Amino acid sequence: MDWLLDAHRSLQGRDPQLVLDVGANVGQTTKLVKGRFPAAVVHAFEPIGSTFDALQAEVGSLPQVSCHRLALSDRSGSMSISTLPRDPRNSLTSTFLHEVKGLVQDTVTLVRLDAFLSERGIRGADILKTDTEGHEMEVLRGAEEVLRRGDVKCVYVEVTFNPANRHHTLFGRVAEYLLPMGFRFAGLYETENLLHPTKDFEFCNALFVLQPAKA
To answer: Which of 20, 56, 91, 160 is the most exposed place for a label (fewest CB within 10 A)?
Structure first.
């Protein structure tokens, strides 16, 4: 299944104009979007210093791509976290890496998506993708205003169905938050890890799309 194709279909065939890549890592999703939709504007967010440098090197020169060393959350401020350089499991919420050797301290800047967009005069986005290793609810709560206004059309989010998973966000929590705002669940993607023998690696991605307003 192709989540980007399904998101495109939910836009009634209109190409996405603005995409928010939250937890961009080294630009995998940004490159996918730009390869499919070259005219799209992409804001890519990655708070970890070493990973951000790699992100900037990978996609920072692409047209209409802006990289931000920011962590989207439900509050503004800063926090210190333990990280592994360039490791995709780095998280503001999960303690999964805390006993791993080679950790370094990194101070990250937190910002609400609502504030980020408002400061830049951006009303909304066609696609909000968040892959933040268990910090998804904080990202979504920080985008409550734009979500409630109906100015985000698709949300693509990493989830788990295993309550024992310490590293990812439960699907039910995301659904309970988005469905009352007019979104519908559209599908699961990259589901191969749902069969992973280690509970902390049981995850996939879910797509929610905004339902058309009733006449």
So the answer is: 56
| CATH code for the domain of 198 | 3.40.50.150
SS3 13: coil
User: Digits of tens for pLDDT over the chain (215 positions)?
Assistant: 899 999 999 999 899 999 999 999 999 999 999 999 999 999 999 998 888 999 999 999 999 999 999 999 999 999 887 666 655 555 555 455 455 555 677 788 999 999 999 999 999 999 999 999 899 999 999 999 999 999 999 999 999 999 988 889 999 999 999 999 999 999 999 998 888 777 778 899 999 999 987 65
The range of the structural domain enclosing residue 205 comes to 3-210
- Angle, helices 28-36 vs 49-59, to 10°: value is 20
Structural domain total, the chain: 1
Asked whether residue 23 is domain-assigned, the answer is yes
**pTM confidence score:** 0.89
Output DSSP code: residue 170.
B
